[in-house]
Amino acid sequence: MIKLTGVTKIYKTGVRALNEMNLNINSGEFVYVIGPTGAGKSTFIKLLYREEIATLGVVTVAGVNVSKIKNRRVPYFRRNIGVVFQNFRLLPKKTIFENVAFALEVIDTPKQKIRTEVRKTLELVGLSDKANSFPHQLSGGQQQRVAIARAIVNQPKVLIADEPTGNLDPDTSEEIIQLLMRINKTEGTTILVVTHNRDMVEKYKNRTILIDNGCVTSDTSLGGYINDQGIN
Amino acid sequence: MIRELISCIRNMPRHTKNALQNIVRNSVMSISSMLTVTITLFLIGVIGVIAINIQDMTVSVEKQLTIYVKLDRETPEEAIASIQTAILGIDHVESAVHSTKEQELEKYIEIMGKIYENYRESNPLGDAFNVEADDGTYLTDIASAIEKLDYVKTVDYGGSSTESLISGLKTIRNFGSVAIVALIVVALFMIANTIKITITSRKTEISIMRMVGASNWYIRIPFVIEGLLIGLLGSLIPIVVIYFGYTFIFNSMNGVFISNLLTIRNPEPFIIYFITFLAGLGSVVGAIGSFMSIRKYLKF
Is any Cβ of chain A less than 8 angstroms from the Cβ of B205? Predict the structure, then answer.
């Protein structure tokens, strides 16, 4: 589903964010991406949804060579990928229903289908009763659920969650990871979770990739965690 | 591209609904954009109405200006036609109407009274020409060219005072045209700037739209419709004020400014066309302003 071959990213400022990175993630996998700040995690993710383009090497997502996508085709490519951010990025002036429906509206989904899909997805994330609320009326955890609902409502092949629990308390964080794992199981979506949350990686074991100095320094399918010396 | 456009047209009701929602939900920014449109359109409207009326007055003054050319009494009959051809050959001469010495005398008698009837026996007058210029500012040039022709006795026209009236009117009209163009440009940038601030405050919304796979046209269209509606709504006050203000001024002055030579254009249908133009201008400027402002946020 995701394949990086010899990927290097050098920014205009001269900063080398990724250094000949190689990685292969199969369809339906649930993967944690961990690493210290400035290791290249964000750049790695941005390459996946074509926010950035690799300087060297090939990035393939869902069978598409991302670097070769023409600018005007980028929106169509992004419809295969759902992205969730630490700060939720909900539209404050739209209701929960509208926030989720938004992702379907922009891809020309018929009205009736939008209604059924949004209801189904809100049910999946446990927020059916909040459809008419506005984001500021919800807790952080609930807002993140809405963001997840928006990211998965059009059934993307890949879901990228960038620090999804960064702003949440431990209990809520657990709920979010459980939800993501449930989506991975029931929908078969390939999920990448970028996180600093050691407890979570320890408790809910999944394949874990450690990025450091712009390349994958460890990759384990055992879900072991890292201490100061690296991955166990 | 074609697919995107078809999709945009199909989604027009949704885009319009979104645009209306955005106007209401971002009411402070919307109102400030509308006020920008209102103020500039009001200025454009007032200057426009004045410039159009001055244009009318200039044309009407010019039309009423003729150069009166008197010929010598002894001018031979056969020379008249060649003098007329020579006058018509002068630059900016539109017409040269011949008036025979007999016609001239009749005019004299009509104006001065029957005492001149005695001259019917031996007409002391010569033939004359009434010369019209296609542009009032060339009166002096034409007059001096005619003076040089053979058999020409005198050349009369309004003189420098008429010329300065015309050039004064033209200056005001030209200033009006330049001011209107300048105001349209200013309006465009002011609206673009206000909308830019609106868009900056909605950067998150745009980035989310881009994140979930909205095409650039899908993102752009609601903003453009929003700009168009803001322009249209912003033009309402100037339209109402100019419509009623102009009609009131016209009626209270009986359509005449200072003298009968300077008339004000009848409000029907002129003012209807003019306010339609203002509404159109507001909408187009609003839409272009939005289009310009959102461009930089849509680059990949």
Answer: yes
User: How many domains, chain B?
Assistant: 2
pTM as predicted: 0.66
- How far is the C-alpha of B276 from the C-alpha of B213, rounded, in Å? 39
- Give the range of the structural domain holding residue B118, as residue numbers without chain letter: 66-157
pLDDT, tens digit only, all 300 positions of chain B: 677 777 777 778 878 887 888 788 778 888 888 888 898 889 889 888 888 888 887 777 766 678 889 998 888 888 888 888 988 899 888 888 998 888 888 888 887 777 777 787 788 888 999 888 887 778 888 888 888 888 888 888 766 666 677 778 778 878 888 888 887 788 777 777 777 777 777 787 788 888 888 888 888 888 889 889 989 999 999 999 999 999 998 888 877 776 666 778 888 888 999 999 999 989 998 888 888 888 878 876
DSSP secondary structure, B229-244, as one string: HHHHHHTHHHHHHHHH
B123 within a domain of the structure (yes/no): yes
In a domain, B163, yes or no: no
Chain B contact for A97 (CB, 8 A cutoff): no
Give yes or no for a contact between A52 and A10, defined as CB atoms under 8 angstroms apart: no
Q: Minimal CA–CA distance to B86: which of B78, B77, B96, B76?
A: B96
Take residue A42 and report the two structure tokens written for it. Answer: 């964000």
**ipTM field:** 0.77
Q: Which residues of A touch B205 (CB under 8 A)?
A: 91
Chain B positions touching A79 (Cβ under 8 A) are: 212-213
* Among the partner residues B208, B213, B216, nearest to A89 by beta-carbon distance: B208
B100 with B243, same domain: the answer is no
> CB A108 to CB B205 under 8 A?
no
